[in-house]
Write a structure and sequence with these properties.
By secondary structure, the protein is α+β, with helices and mostly antiparallel strands. The chain has helices spanning 45-57, 111-116, 125-134, and strands spanning 6-15, 18-26, 29-33, 36-38, 60-73, 80-91, 103-109, 139-140. The protein starts with 5 loop residues before the first strand and ends in a 13-residue tail after the last strand.
Length: 153
């Protein structure tokens, strides 16, 4: 069997000192996470994060920066994730949109409120990502390149 990490995207979205989180049903109960999900076939990382934010929150998302690329595994036998974390702004919310399966609510929480829910975070990367954002960590989106279906000449 060939080992490979699961590629995911996530978004840190801040508005007036509060961060958009989704509350989702997991095998460990209700957990908080940034809007996030898996990269799909034939999709750029930027398109993936826009889609995931919309599917999980009903917001249109415009990524402005890459915060970090995170390699994470919970334990030696667990799945490994390569997570691309973006920052940007939301606009055009559709409160009537059906959200992805498992998403029960969206919340705008302060960093302190997120920290107080540490035991309910989907992974430690949720708070790490907020702290990276708050520390000013930003990289240009031009850092990312997509070469899907590029023919070699």
């Amino acid at each position: 069997m060939v080992w490979k990490p699961h590629v995911t995207v996530a978004a840190v979205i801040e508005r007036e000192g509060r961060f958009l989180l989704v509350e989702e049903q997991t095998s460990n109960g209700l957990r908080f996470n940034q809007p996030a999900g898996h990269l799909e076939e034939n999709e750029s990382l930027i398109d993936a994060v826009k889609r995931e934010v919309n599917e999980e929150s009903g917001w249109q998302f415009e990524p402005e920066h890459l915060i970090s690329i995170q390699l994470w595994r919970k334990s030696p036998r667990a799945t490994t994730f390569l997570r691309c974390l973006f920052a940007g702004q939301c606009h055009s919310h559709n409160p009537d949109q059906m959200l992805d399966d498992g998403i029960v609510a969206t919340h705008w929480l302060s960093r302190d409120e997120i920290h107080a829910q540490k035991h309910r975070l989907r992974s430690p990367l949720v708070l790490i990502g907020v702290d990276e954002y708050l520390s000013g960590q930003r990289y240009p989106l031009s850092f990312l390149k997509s070469f899907l279906d590029l023919k070699h000449v």
